[in-house]
Amino acid sequence: xxxxxxxKVNNGTGAFVLQCKSLVFxxxxxxxxxxxxxxxxxxxxxxxxxxxxxxxxxxxxxxxHHPVVRGNYLNGRDKVICTRNMTPSEISKxxxxxxxxxxxxxxxxxxxxxxxxxxxxxxxxxxxxxxPHTI
Length: 135
Known about the structure:
alpha+beta
């Protein structure tokens, strides 16, 4: 039996693969903080789903809780954003943020940019070490 060999597709070299696998919208119909989420689900969610057919859209009631939008990603991680007391336009910005996110952990940019197993013996280089400047 012959098997068909498919080329390995890496993200960025072949076709672009969106990292967001599904979006889960949780809401409660009774709490006032869910008013913007309910309005977003009724009016804007259908157009978002039509524009992004590659993302699975799940709407679940979650009684007695604030509304949240959860993004599930291909790397197995998820990101959750609370949309309490937000307007539908603010919720659409947050949904776009979850859609465009990679799902990777946020990295602290204040740390050292070079990761090494051994520290430098010479210390940190500075342009003032090579040619002494006179002021």
